[in-house]
Structure prediction request, 270 residues.
Amino acid sequence: MTPKPRKPSPLAGHRILVGRARHQASALSSGLRDLGAEVLEIPFIEIRKPRSYARFDQALRNLDHYDWLILTSVNGVDAMWARLTCLRLTGRKLPSLKIAAIGPATQKAIERRGLKVHVVPAQYVAEAVVDSLRHRAQGKRVLLARAKVARDVIPRELRKLGAKVDVVVAYKTVVPKSSKARLRAILKDPERRPDVITFTSSSTVKNFVALLGRTAGRGARAGAKSFDSVRFASIGPVTSATLRDLGLPVDIEAKEYTIPGLIAAIAASL
Prediction:
C-alpha cells in the first residue's frame, strides 16, 4: 500500500521571532514549530515582583468583602496564587465571590487552582470584560488584580456603572536588558533576520521599541533596513493599536485574540 504523501508544513522555511516572557514562550513557540517554523526566542518583556505586596496582601486577606474578582492575565493568576500560598489562604472557601477572566488561557490558569470562573467575555479585551459585567457589577465591590502599568478601561468604566473598584498591583513588567544586543544583532544579519515578529501585548510592542532605541511616534520602521521583509504579527486590536501608535505596521492580526489564534493567523498569511 502506497503511503499518503505528507502535507507540507505551512510554516516550513519561515523564521519567526517570539518575544514573549521567557517562562511563557513555550506555547507559542511549540505551536509555530509544529507547523514547521524555525523559532527564535528573545523576550521583549520580563515579569517581576512589585516593590510592595502590602495592598495586594490586604485585599487577598479580605476577599470575602468583594463580590467580583477580575484577572486579566495568566501572570496575574500566578501572582495571586503565589501570594495566597505565602499567606496560607489557599484553602479558604469564598462562596459569594465570583471571578471574571479576560480569556481562555487565564480561565484555565484559574481553574487549575480549583476555582470557578463565572465570566469569560466573547472577545478577550478589557472592553469586553466591562460589557460582560455591565449588568452584574452595579453597586458591587470589585477587585482587579493586574500589572503595575495597564490600561484603565476596566476600573474607569465599571466605576461609571456604579461599581466600587479596588485596583491592586500583582506584578510588574520590565524591559529585559539582556535582550538588547541579541535583538539588534539578528535584525542586522540578513542570514538570521526573522520573517515574522510576534507581539502578544502592548507591553511587548513598547519594550521592543525600547530595546531598539527607536523614538516613539517617529516611525520606527521607516527607513530601517533592519526591518526589510519583516512582517509584524499582533495578537489583537489593542496590541495592533500600540504598534501603529509607535510607527510600526500591522501585517498580521489574529481573528481570535489568543495564542492559537495568533498561530493560525500567521499560518494563513504566509
In short: Residues 74-86 form the longest helix (13 residues).
